[in-house]
Write a structure and sequence with these properties.
The complex is a heterodimer of chains A (113) and B (109).
Chain A: E1 5-7, E2 10-13, E3 19-24, E4 31-38, E5 42-50, E6 53-57, E7 64-68, E8 74-78, E9 87-94, E10 103-104, E11 108-112
Parallel strand pairs in A: 2-11
Antiparallel strand pairs in A: 1-3, 3-8, 4-5, 4-9, 5-6, 7-8, 9-10, 9-11
Chain B: E1 5-7, E2 10-14, E3 19-24, E4 31-37, E5 44-49, E6 55-58, E7 61-65, E8 71-76, E9 85-93, E10 96-99, E11 103-108
Parallel strand pairs in B: 2-11
Antiparallel strand pairs in B: 1-3, 3-8, 4-5, 4-9, 6-7, 7-8, 9-10, 9-11
The chains are: A mainly beta (113), B mainly beta (109).
């Protein structure tokens, strides 16, 4: 069974731009969660989607948004990028919800210049 | 807000030594998971503990869930260079997961 895939793996953007990251979950998994990982803050929860609906949301500004498609693939978007948005963005899929075993993708490393 | 504090933050030890990593919170969790993350990759689940006082062993790794389900520990016996990585605990409650602050382990050959 193929694992969680994330594209792109690396991204460099400048302040003010916007970015879209993509995540393909494990086949059959309907829950997709997104996390931001930085050395200073650790792994922080962004949001969780299940059956195309946002089920939970972390404490991030509205510049961070996401969506899920009918095939469970998910995208997250960050608008008006700031230097502090530089991070590793991880996507995790699970069968029912984020308290199930989560399978993480390799992440997208975003650098904002 | 549920917080999970891990200690120590960093650990550098020689191959063959034993170590323990702690994960503490003031909140009660319905289950607690431990992950290991290697550079350039996402975290990989090691174990899930669900019962207070539960002890699980995975080869040289021993995981314990506190009686009150607020804390957990990970003990590694005879550490090997392949154990090097970032260890994360994650507590689940009310359909949400909170990750710990992480422990970066380096095992020197």
């Amino acid at each position: 069974k193929a694992g969680v895939t994330q594209t792109p793996r690396y991204l460099i953007k400048t302040r003010g731009q916007q970015v879209t990251l993509s995540c393909s979950p494990i086949s059959g998994h309907r829950s997709v969660s997104w996390y931001q990982q930085t050395p200073g803050q650790g792994l922080q929860f962004l949001f969780e989607y299940f059956s195309e609906t946002q089920r939970n949301k972390g404490n991030f500004p509205g510049r961070f948004s996401g969506r899920q498609f009918s095939n469970s693939r998910s995208e997250m978007n960050v608008s008006t990028l700031e230097l502090g948005d530089s991070a590793l963005y991880l996507c995790a899929s699970s069968f029912r919800d984020s308290t199930d075993t989560q399978y993480f993708g390799p992440g997208t490393r975003l650098t904002v210049l | 807000t549920q917080l999970l504090e891990q200690s120590p933050q960093f650990l550098s030890i020689q191959e063959g030594e034993n170590l323990t990593v702690y994960c503490n919170s003031s909140s009660v969790f319905s289950s607690l998971q431990w992950y290991r993350q290697e550079p350039g990759e996402g975290p990989v689940l090691l174990v899930t503990v669900v019962t207070g006082g539960e002890v699980k062993k995975l080869k040289r790794l021993t995981f314990q869930f506190g009686d009150a389900r607020k804390d957990s520990s990970l003990h590694i016996t005879a550490a090997q260079p392949g154990d090097t990585g970032l260890y994360l605990c994650a507590g689940a409650a009310n359909q949400k997961v909170t990750f710990g602050t992480g422990t970066k382990l380096q095992v020197i050959p």
